[in-house]
Amino acid sequence: MRTLLKYVLLACAIVAMPILAHAADMKIAVVSADEVLQNSDVGKRTMADLKAKVESKQQELKRQNDDLQHVGEDYQKKAVTLSPEAKSKAQADLEARQRKLMEDQQTFAQQMDQEQKRVMEPLFKVFEQVVADYAKKNSYSLILEKHTTHYIAPGVDVTADITRDFDAAAKHSK
Fold it and tell me: Does 3.30.910.20 match the CATH number of domain 2-173?
Protein backbone atom coordinates (compact mmCIF):
# COMPACT_ATOMS: atom_id res chain seq x y z
CA MET A 1 0.00 0.00 0.00
CA ARG A 2 2.82 2.38 0.87
CA THR A 3 4.56 1.41 -2.34
CA LEU A 4 1.41 2.24 -4.28
CA LEU A 5 1.33 5.66 -2.63
CA LYS A 6 4.94 6.23 -3.60
CA TYR A 7 4.21 5.35 -7.23
CA VAL A 8 1.16 7.60 -7.30
CA LEU A 9 3.21 10.49 -5.96
CA LEU A 10 5.99 9.72 -8.47
CA ALA A 11 3.48 9.66 -11.33
CA CYS A 12 2.12 13.01 -10.17
CA ALA A 13 5.65 14.39 -10.18
CA ILE A 14 6.30 13.16 -13.71
CA VAL A 15 3.06 14.65 -14.98
CA ALA A 16 3.93 17.91 -13.27
CA MET A 17 7.43 18.21 -14.78
CA PRO A 18 6.37 20.37 -17.78
CA ILE A 19 4.57 22.69 -15.39
CA LEU A 20 7.67 22.91 -13.25
CA ALA A 21 9.70 24.16 -16.19
CA HIS A 22 7.39 27.18 -16.51
CA ALA A 23 6.77 27.95 -12.89
CA ALA A 24 9.75 29.42 -11.12
CA ASP A 25 7.65 30.56 -8.19
CA MET A 26 6.37 27.08 -7.34
CA LYS A 27 6.91 25.93 -3.80
CA ILE A 28 7.87 22.26 -3.52
CA ALA A 29 8.36 19.97 -0.52
CA VAL A 30 8.93 16.31 0.21
CA VAL A 31 7.41 14.01 2.81
CA SER A 32 8.14 10.42 3.78
CA ALA A 33 4.92 8.45 4.23
CA ASP A 34 6.88 5.65 5.90
CA GLU A 35 8.42 7.99 8.44
CA VAL A 36 5.06 9.59 9.19
CA LEU A 37 3.52 6.19 9.90
CA GLN A 38 6.54 4.98 11.89
CA ASN A 39 6.91 8.12 13.98
CA SER A 40 3.31 9.13 14.58
CA ASP A 41 1.50 7.95 17.70
CA VAL A 42 -1.36 6.41 15.75
CA GLY A 43 1.07 4.73 13.34
CA LYS A 44 3.09 3.25 16.21
CA ARG A 45 -0.08 1.92 17.88
CA THR A 46 -1.38 0.47 14.65
CA MET A 47 1.90 -1.24 13.83
CA ALA A 48 2.18 -2.58 17.40
CA ASP A 49 -1.34 -4.03 17.16
CA LEU A 50 -0.55 -5.67 13.82
CA LYS A 51 2.74 -7.00 15.18
CA ALA A 52 0.98 -8.53 18.19
CA LYS A 53 -1.50 -10.33 15.93
CA VAL A 54 1.32 -11.58 13.71
CA GLU A 55 3.43 -12.81 16.62
CA SER A 56 0.52 -14.65 18.19
CA LYS A 57 -0.29 -16.52 14.99
CA GLN A 58 3.40 -17.13 14.25
CA GLN A 59 3.78 -18.82 17.62
CA GLU A 60 0.83 -21.05 16.82
CA LEU A 61 2.32 -21.93 13.42
CA LYS A 62 5.70 -22.59 15.06
CA ARG A 63 4.05 -25.06 17.47
CA GLN A 64 2.43 -26.80 14.52
CA ASN A 65 5.79 -26.95 12.74
CA ASP A 66 7.53 -28.30 15.87
CA ASP A 67 4.83 -30.96 16.25
CA LEU A 68 5.26 -31.88 12.61
CA GLN A 69 9.01 -32.21 13.05
CA HIS A 70 8.52 -34.47 16.10
CA VAL A 71 6.07 -36.64 14.18
CA GLY A 72 8.53 -36.79 11.27
CA GLU A 73 11.44 -37.74 13.54
CA ASP A 74 9.29 -40.34 15.26
CA TYR A 75 8.28 -41.74 11.87
CA GLN A 76 11.94 -41.92 10.77
CA LYS A 77 12.86 -43.88 13.92
CA LYS A 78 9.97 -46.32 13.60
CA ALA A 79 9.87 -46.63 9.77
CA VAL A 80 12.20 -49.63 9.69
CA THR A 81 10.09 -51.66 12.12
CA LEU A 82 6.66 -50.73 10.77
CA SER A 83 4.60 -53.01 8.59
CA PRO A 84 3.96 -51.78 5.06
CA GLU A 85 0.38 -50.86 6.00
CA ALA A 86 1.40 -48.97 9.13
CA LYS A 87 4.23 -47.30 7.26
CA SER A 88 1.86 -46.18 4.50
CA LYS A 89 -0.66 -44.89 7.05
CA ALA A 90 2.02 -43.00 9.04
CA GLN A 91 3.43 -41.50 5.84
CA ALA A 92 -0.04 -40.39 4.72
CA ASP A 93 -0.64 -38.81 8.14
CA LEU A 94 2.68 -36.98 7.95
CA GLU A 95 1.91 -35.68 4.45
CA ALA A 96 -1.57 -34.56 5.55
CA ARG A 97 -0.05 -32.64 8.46
CA GLN A 98 2.48 -31.02 6.11
CA ARG A 99 -0.30 -29.94 3.73
CA LYS A 100 -2.35 -28.57 6.63
CA LEU A 101 0.61 -26.55 7.91
CA MET A 102 1.28 -25.14 4.43
CA GLU A 103 -2.41 -24.25 4.03
CA ASP A 104 -2.47 -22.61 7.46
CA GLN A 105 0.64 -20.59 6.59
CA GLN A 106 -0.88 -19.43 3.30
CA THR A 107 -4.19 -18.58 4.96
CA PHE A 108 -2.35 -16.64 7.66
CA ALA A 109 -0.36 -14.66 5.07
CA GLN A 110 -3.56 -13.78 3.21
CA GLN A 111 -5.35 -12.82 6.43
CA MET A 112 -2.48 -10.59 7.50
CA ASP A 113 -2.41 -8.88 4.10
CA GLN A 114 -6.14 -8.24 4.34
CA GLU A 115 -5.85 -7.04 7.94
CA GLN A 116 -3.00 -4.70 7.08
CA LYS A 117 -4.98 -3.23 4.18
CA ARG A 118 -8.09 -2.89 6.37
CA VAL A 119 -6.19 -1.08 9.12
CA MET A 120 -3.89 1.01 6.94
CA GLU A 121 -6.42 2.23 4.36
CA PRO A 122 -8.11 4.72 6.72
CA LEU A 123 -4.69 5.95 7.85
CA PHE A 124 -3.64 6.57 4.25
CA LYS A 125 -6.82 8.54 3.64
CA VAL A 126 -6.06 10.70 6.67
CA PHE A 127 -2.45 11.04 5.50
CA GLU A 128 -3.53 12.16 2.01
CA GLN A 129 -5.94 14.71 3.47
CA VAL A 130 -3.29 16.02 5.88
CA VAL A 131 -0.79 16.45 3.03
CA ALA A 132 -3.39 18.24 0.91
CA ASP A 133 -4.40 20.52 3.78
CA TYR A 134 -0.76 21.24 4.64
CA ALA A 135 0.00 22.08 1.02
CA LYS A 136 -2.92 24.51 0.81
CA LYS A 137 -2.20 26.10 4.18
CA ASN A 138 1.49 26.63 3.36
CA SER A 139 1.09 27.46 -0.36
CA TYR A 140 2.89 24.39 -1.69
CA SER A 141 2.34 23.61 -5.35
CA LEU A 142 3.73 20.11 -5.06
CA ILE A 143 4.61 17.70 -2.24
CA LEU A 144 6.55 14.65 -3.39
CA GLU A 145 7.32 11.34 -1.73
CA LYS A 146 10.78 11.73 -0.23
CA HIS A 147 12.03 8.29 -1.28
CA THR A 148 11.33 8.89 -4.96
CA THR A 149 13.62 11.89 -5.25
CA HIS A 150 17.36 11.89 -5.84
CA TYR A 151 18.16 15.22 -4.27
CA ILE A 152 16.43 17.17 -1.54
CA ALA A 153 17.54 20.67 -0.63
CA PRO A 154 17.79 21.44 3.07
CA GLY A 155 14.54 22.72 4.51
CA VAL A 156 12.32 21.08 1.89
CA ASP A 157 11.46 17.99 3.97
CA VAL A 158 8.15 18.58 5.76
CA THR A 159 7.84 15.08 7.24
CA ALA A 160 8.01 16.28 10.87
CA ASP A 161 5.25 18.84 10.28
CA ILE A 162 3.08 16.31 8.46
CA THR A 163 3.64 13.77 11.28
CA ARG A 164 2.45 16.32 13.85
CA ASP A 165 -0.61 17.21 11.76
CA PHE A 166 -1.27 13.53 11.00
CA ASP A 167 -1.39 12.65 14.70
CA ALA A 168 -3.79 15.49 15.36
CA ALA A 169 -6.02 14.56 12.41
CA ALA A 170 -5.98 10.85 13.27
CA LYS A 171 -7.11 11.58 16.83
CA HIS A 172 -10.03 13.64 15.52
CA SER A 173 -11.05 11.11 12.86
CA LYS A 174 -11.75 8.29 15.33
Answer: yes
Domain boundary assignment for the chain: 2-173
Which of 128, 144, 118 is CA-nearest to residue 53? Answer: 118
Ramachandran sector of residue 122 (left: φ over 0; alpha: ψ -120 to 50; beta: rest): alpha
CA-CA distances (angstroms) from residue 49 to 58, 109, 116? 14, 16, 10
With 0.85 as the threshold, say if the pTM is over it.
no
Is residue 30 within 8 Å of residue 152, measured between CB atoms? yes
Q: How many helices (H) and strands (E) does the chain have?
A: 5, 2
pLDDT, tens digit (0-9, with 9 covering 90-100), for 1-10: 666 666 655 6
Give pLDDT, residue 4: 62
CA distance 112 to 137: 37
- List the beta bridge partners of residue 31: 145
